[in-house]
Amino acid sequence: MKILVPDVPLRREMEPLADGVELVSEPAPDVEVVLLAPELWHDLPGLFRQLPRLRLIQSFSAGVDSILPAVPPGVVLCNAHGVHDISVAEWVVAAILAMQRRLPEFVDLQHRAEWKRDLADGVGDLEGQSVVVVGYGSIGRAVAARLAPFGARVVGVARHPREGAQSTVALPRLLPDADIVVNLLPLTSQTEKFMDRAFFAQMKPGSLLVNAGRGPTVDIEALLDALTAGRIRAALDVTDPEPLPADHPLWRAPNVLITPHIAGTVAKWEERAYRFAGEQIRRYAAGQPLLGVQTGNTPAARGLAN
Ligand code: OXD
């Protein structure tokens, strides 16, 4: 079985490789599996056209919205299930703490050499705060586990029935009481602009929206209006569009912290991705169910032996 993967030292993290697995670093007609490491991210339709016997695409990202349109019919696409849980969950906690303790505003004061203690008047800590996580998968559970020691009360919400998560129909009841709303939704046709004007109108005045999912799941115009009106605050790792143009009004909106889609970017992420890819290849070769299947439960999704 030929697997296309860039020839980089990190690929030894995939070991042990199953018998019969051959790693190749150039596209070839008999490649069966491709590991979508960053080196292969440009021109996916062009890459897949060179792989007529492709059966499995293993993504290195959690979100697969940019890959899905290029996936040839019948080919299984798996996301990097679990690979980004730690890094993204840490970014979410960091963003929440920074916004709750007004760190971006203190940094502004620091740049002006201003000692202004009253900025801290009335800031809350996380103890007893209510956090609603929308899009409650493995990253959401990692967020909940990290917020628990702070004494925050976390409620998970998911569009599809999931252990430990309430349905999105509960949102009109949950939002008015939530101090913090964390958006981890993937981008699909059903989640586009999921967080719209009506959603923001239901959020508690002064509450915080944290987005580490995908930018287009938020109606950016509606968010801008809610921020400008001082209704809510936001910490955004993702925006719509990306990169956010220099003249976009979101940069200058009040009470917003923006980072350039780096929540998952930590030194260890690729190592984790290759290790996960190794596990998937072992499953595939043994005919075991794959993790993070995004394109339906086809025989190939249940491994090579089927
Ligand atoms: C991902 C991301 O989807 O980092 O993995 O956005």
Question: Which descriptors would you attach to this protein?
Answer:
binds oxalic acid; 7-stranded parallel beta sheet; 25% helix; disordered C terminus; Rossmann fold; 8 helices; elongated; 306 residues
The portion of residues forming beta strands comes to: 15-25%
At the third CATH level, what is the topology name of the largest domain? Rossmann fold
Low-pLDDT regions: 302-306
Average pLDDT works out at: 95
* Spatial arrangement of strands, main beta sheet: 8-7-6-9-10-11-12
CATH superfamily of the largest domain: NAD(P)-binding Rossmann-like Domain
* Tally of contiguous helical segments: 8
Bound molecules: oxalic acid
The CATH class of the largest domain is identified as Alpha Beta
Give the overall shape, derived from the CA principal axes.
elongated
End-to-end Cα distance, whole Å, is 14 Å
Q: How would you classify the helix and strand content by structural class?
A: alpha/beta
Main β-sheet, in a few words?
7 strands, parallel
Short description:
About 25% of the residues lie in helices and about 15% in strands. It is an alpha/beta fold and about 300 residues long.
Give your account of this protein's structure:
The protein is an alpha/beta fold and 306 residues long. It folds into two domains: 2-83 and 267-304, Rossmann fold (3-Layer(aba) Sandwich), CATH 3.40.50; 85-258, Rossmann fold (3-Layer(aba) Sandwich). The protein contains eight helices and twelve strands. The strands form two sheets. Strands 8-7-6-9-10-11-12 form a seven-stranded parallel beta sheet, with helices on one face. The protein has a five-stranded parallel beta sheet with strand order 2-1-3-4-5, with no helix packed on it. Helix 2 (85-100) packs across helix 4. The protein is elongated. Bound molecules: oxalic acid. Oxalic acid binds next to loops.
